[in-house]
Write a structure and sequence with these properties.
Layout lengths: L10 E2 L7 H4 L6 E7 L18 H8 L2 E7 L5 H10 L18 E2 L7 H6 L4 E7 L17 E5 L27 E5 L2 E6 L2 H5 L1 H15 L5 E6 L21 H22 L6 E7 L26 H4 E7 L8 E3 L3 E2 L3 H9 L14 H4 L10 E6 L2 E7 L2 E4 L2 E5 L15 E5 L2 E4 L15 H18 E2 L4 E2 L7 E2 L1
Parallel strand pairs: 2-9, 2-10, 3-12, 3-13, 5-6, 5-9
Antiparallel strand pairs: 1-12, 3-11, 4-22, 6-7, 7-8, 10-11, 14-15, 15-16, 16-19, 17-18, 20-21
Helix pairs in contact: 6-7
């Protein structure tokens, strides 16, 4: 169990004193955002993970800040990425769930992405990896602030290949999936049809990221690296295959760690690592029914596809020597939706005119005493408000949900079943009970009422399908 002192509030550091350089801002910093797919809270060493060596991530954490109460916008692929890039709860902008290859909607033209915000300040921008905010041209990265894109438009399991890596016939239930395309800019340049091609995705993405750093070392840049891994089907190159004690999943984590190391090496070699903000986090929790091909929540409840802690709480490491003191741990409430306004504050960029939900985390990065920029967090899944958090208290509202409890996962890359779970109204003290096992609503009725009032504000603003409430400030997704 990886859940003890790391879940307290406040920020702690190996040093209580900031140097003059740490306290100030060097302008303009580069930004590297490394975004994993289905990584669990308990997967990497600095969050209690075992079975794979991750020295580069360990070093990143020792040289920067490790967040312990950091949340994905929602517990599923497209919604999470929409929140990350726009600073909005995904349901505010109409992008929820995981977009399919046959969907005709995606990120709206009127939304301002992180890339567009930084591009307005003269940054070169690139994405290498998985997009998943719409695969039609009008939704692709080059139409939303990125100068360069190389990678896949949606998840790597959206292809007509069985779980053992063999192509399927026309009568197979996976035959509905089209061939997985690989893009350069707006152009589909090849198809990914074999596990061998998936094995090279992490290496291809990393090499391209390093080249981008080398090419833009003299100008500010925003590099977004949303790896397709460790989403199933797991792909790992020969250099890491069979190298971990954890099996294939651990091999994938070791290659991800290698990728982080190559990116950091490029920053150091070019003399720009001190003034580059590097952020490492993930889109949602592990897909637990895949057994040994899935990650660990570190003892948090449930996983991907839920609004329980295991579905949305993620590891997050930020390193920026020009501002962040080394060896710092921060327990304050924070989220991927807070990154856009934080970057706006750092670069003095203008906040989008459309309403957003993120808050500026810069006071936390600068270790301003008693900082608590995010007071509350809403746990939406799709358009349903399933919980709210304030401080250590989390109030969960009655809802049905995907559950991994009480069913046996399957190993070897094959999916096990889900169970249909249901919860009534429940209150959890996440400081004492991060696994969400003990409902204490009867002990703290005043806290329940306080959190219900917070939920009422959320419903008025963003809506709630569970109560058939339409939000006053939601915007539609883009449509072809």
């Amino acid at each position: 169990m990886v859940l003890s002192a790391i879940l307290l509030f406040g920020c702690s550091s190996q040093s209580n004193q900031l140097t003059e350089r740490d306290a100030g801002l060097v302008s303009p910093p580069n930004v590297v955002l490394i975004f994993m797919d289905d990584l669990g809270y308990g997967d990497i060493n600095t969050y209690g993970g075992t079975g794979s060596e991750t020295p580069n991530l360990d070093r990143l954490a020792s040289e920067g800040m490790r967040f312990t109460n950091f949340y994905a916008a929602q517990g599923v692929c497209s919604a999470s990425r929409a929140g990350l890039l726009t600073g909005c709860y995904p349901n505010r902008i109409g992008v929820v769930g995981a977009l399919m290859p046959w969907d005709d909607h995606g990120i709206g033209d009127g939304e301002t992405t992180m890339a567009e915000l930084l591009k307005s300040k003269g940054y070169a921008t690139a994405i290498f990896g998985k997009w998943h905010l719409g695969h039609h041209k009008q939704f692709l990265p080059l139409q939303h602030g990125f100068n360069e894109f190389m990678g896949i438009p949606y998840s790597n399991d959206m292809w007509p290949v069985d779980f053992d890596g063999t192509p399927v016939g026309k009568d197979h239930d996976r035959s509905i999936w089209p061939v997985l395309p690989f893009f350069e800019g707006n152009k589909r340049i090849e198809d990914i049809t074999t596990p061998a091609q998936q094995n090279m995705l992490t290496t291809r993405i990393t090499n391209r990221a390093v080249n981008f750093i080398n090419q833009h070392k003299d100008t500010p840049f925003f590099l977004y690296v949303p790896h397709p891994m460790p989403h199933v089907p797991l792909g790992v190159s020969e250099k890491f295959r069979g190298k971990s004690k954890q099996g294939k999943y651990g091999d994938v984590l070791m290659e991800i760690d290698w990728s982080v190391g190559k990116i950091m090496e490029a920053l150091r070699r070019n003399g720009i690592d001190d003034n580059t903000l590097v952020i490492f986090t993930s889109d949602n929790g592990p897909w637990l029914n895949y057994g040994d091909h899935a990650g660990s929540t570190g003892g948090l409840r449930e996983g991907k596809g839920t609004s329980w802690e295991g579905g949305q709480r993620e590891p997050c490491i930020m390193r920026w020597p020009a501002t962040i003191p080394a060896g710092k741990t921060c327990h304050e409430l924070s989220s991927t939706i807070d990154l856009l306004p934080t970057l706006a504050a750092i670069t003095e960029a203008e906040i989008p005119s459309n309403k957003i939900d993120g808050v500026n985390l810069l006071p936390l990065l600068k270790a301003v005493p008693n900082s608590e920029p995010r007071k509350e967090f809403y746990y939406y899944y799709g358009y349903a408000l399933e919980g709210v958090r304030k401080g250590n208290w989390k109030l969960v509202f009655p809802h049905d949900h995907r559950s991994y409890e009480g069913v046996l996962p399957t190993n070897g890359g094959w999916p096990g079943p889900y169970r249909k779970g249901h919860t009534g109204l429940a209150l959890y003290d996440l400081r004492r009970d991060p696994g969400e096992e003990y409902d204490v609503k009867d002990l703290y009725p005043d806290v329940v009422e306080q959190l219900k009032n917070i939920a009422s504000k959320a419903r008025e603003d963003l809506g709630d399908d569970l109560m058939s409430i339409e939000g006053k400030n939601v915007r539609p997704a883009g449509k072809i």
